[in-house]
Amino acid sequence: MRGIKPCLAGLFIFATCFCISYQSQAQCPAGLELGTENIVVNGDFSAGNTGFVSDHGFCSTPGCLATEGKYTVAGDPSVYQPTFVGSDHTTGAGNFLIVNGATTTDPALWCQTIPVDPNSFYQISYWVSSMVGQSPASIQVTLNTFPFFGPTSAPGNVNQWNNFSQTWVSGLNTSVTMCLVNKNDDANGNDFGIDDISIKKCECALVIDAGEGDSVCYGDSVQLMGVGATSYYWTPTSSVSCFTCENPVATPDETTTYTVTASGPGGCRATDSVTVVIFPPFDLHAGPDTSICFGESVQLTADGAVSYQWLPATWLSDPFIAMPLCSPETSINYYLNAVDQFGCKQYDSLKINVWPYNGPVIASNDTTVCLGDAVLLTVNQLTGVVWSPDDFLSCVECSQPLCFPDTGIVYTVSVTDINNCFSGTDTVVISVDDSCDIIIIPTMELPSAFSPNNDGQNDFFKVLGNGIEEINLMIYNRWGQLVFSTANKDIGWDGTYEGDAQEIGVYIWQLKGSLIDGTLINKRGNVTLLR
Question: In principle, which of 28, 69, 159, 337 could form an S-S bond with 202, CB 3.0–4.6 Å?
């Protein structure tokens, strides 16, 4: 076809600017409904042979339809051809178009030019019946000379009316010329009736429903439900996932009324509104992170909600209350799920850090000393040590004090670690024997740790003992570098090398020497430097 151009939405634009759309069923699109006004003039032929043109010849005398290519408008076909059987399609004694089909090619039975609205949907319909049973007519509908639908056959039974219809889109047209064309040119039979030709507009029946209002928690989303249209526009647009979708997801920060404007076929528009109520967020506090000593308990203190759940429930007195008692054995993270009076949820967490147990505290064994002798007290802890009472001791806040007792005494040593956690206590019973001869038993010992922090307690690492003749003490760092040496038992290492404080850690010592009884000493060991 010369001059045909593609047209939007499955239409075709011909050189005459005529657009058609052929649909499989004669029904209006969603959102439109068939109107009641028939814009075809005299489509039921009640006004007789007026309002249309035909390529067939008109006749009105009895028996005149014995000739092919003739038609009349009447109520009783047998008057114009005794073998014809039929009646008007509509109730009553109305007229219809009675035709003896022509033997020429594609003659128009009926044509009419009809004004239409551009870009609108119409239903085109007609009824056909056979006056004789042989060779039924084959009817095609054309619009502006172009085939629209058909050909469709008339019924095989006489005086039976069949309806044929299709939906048409007017496009840019303001008028259309509709014709009914008989594609059957058989002279034997091909006798039929046409009635109730109609073109009715599909009118707007759009009803949009935005759905019921909803209430959601702050931060939650709700799906809006637009129903009844083919295109949508939601406002405000800022808090919806898609403002042109049928069912967008809305996430408003505050109570918001959404309005949807819907469009349907034929320019139909409708609006509706729905309000989404936002419950304000509530402040949930699980409490601060906390550190406790091993064996202690802490009460969790949540607030801001009406129901609570702590996870995990391990070591909690009740995981479903705001303030359970927590007695953890190790450090643990707790997660709090809470719900307010509106059913809204919030989450928070906290950590309970458990300082490990630094015990048990083990002091030196009970001992008996001769009057005037000294004894070295020891404990298996390096820091936080306190001896009580302080009688006869060289220091009370050190791990290895010298005791010079005049009488028997019981010492209690208490230890608190660097996290201020109580490690425990132990006791040492010192008995004094004032009847023994004074015998100096040569000894030579070295402490296992020292803390050179200038607090007057355990600031030097040096040789301890009785009856020491001579010494040679050398101390090495972990790389084997000599950091201190002395041959004087009264001089100890202060934890420095060439004036620089050395780092905390383990150092190797080597001790050579002799006691007054001739015993030779050759020992190696390590010492821990603390600050």
Answer: 28
Task: Name every residue whose Cβ is closer than 8 Å to that of residue 314 and which is 6 or more positions away in sequence.
Answer: 328, 332
Got the DSSP string for 454-481?
SSSSS--B--EEESEEEEEEEEE-TTS-
DSSP annotation of 10 reads G
Number of domains in the chain: 5
Q: Give the three-state DSSP class for 66.
A: helix
Distances from the Cα of 124 to the Cα of 34, 42, 175, 198, angstroms: 11, 15, 14, 6
Please state, rounded to an integer, the average pLDDT across all residues of the chain: 88
Residues with Cβ within 8 Å of residue 392, at least 6 apart in sequence: 403, 404, 405, 406, 409
Query: Of 354, 374, 406, at which residue does a domain stop?
Result: 354
Peptide bond into 236 cis (omega under 30): yes
Residues 376, 447 within the same domain: no
State the DSSP H helix or E strand holding residue 34, giving kind and residue range, or none if neither. Answer: strand 32-38
What pLDDT does 31 receive? 67
Tens digit of each residue's pLDDT (9 = 90 or more) over 347-367: 999 999 999 988 899 999 999
DSSP string, 172-195: T-SEEEEEEEE----SSS-EEEEE
Q: What is the pTM of this model?
A: 0.47
Assess whether 451 and 369 both reside in one domain.
no
Query: Pick from 126, 151, 149, 169: which is nearest to 19 by CA?
Result: 169
270 within domain boundaries:
yes
ω into 77 cis (within 30 of 0): no
91 phi and psi angles, rounded to 5 deg: -65, 140
Instruction: State the pLDDT confidence band at 91, using cuts at 50, 70 and 90.
Output: low
Contact 53, 109 (CB under 8 A): no
Give the per-residue pLDDT at 18.
Answer: 35
Give the model's pLDDT for residue 106: 87
Residues pairing with 152 in the sheet: 139
Domain boundary among 226, 258, 279: 279
Residue with tokens 């030097």: 460
State pLDDT tens for residues 482-495: 999 999 988 999 99
Are 156 and 128 a contacting pair, CB within 8 Å?
A: no
The CA distance from 191 to 167, in Å, is 27
For residue 463 the two structure tokens come to: 């040789």
Q: Which residues pair with 379 in a beta bridge?
A: 363
One-letter amino acid for residue 153 of the chain: S
Report residue 215: phi and psi, to 5°. -125, 125
Answer whether 367's CB lies under 8 Å from 430's CB: yes
Pairing of strands 345-355, 332-339: antiparallel
Q: Which domain holds residue 170?
A: 5-204
Question: pLDDT tens digit string along 28-62?
Answer: 887 678 989 999 999 999 999 999 999 999 999 99
Beta bridge partners of 164: 126
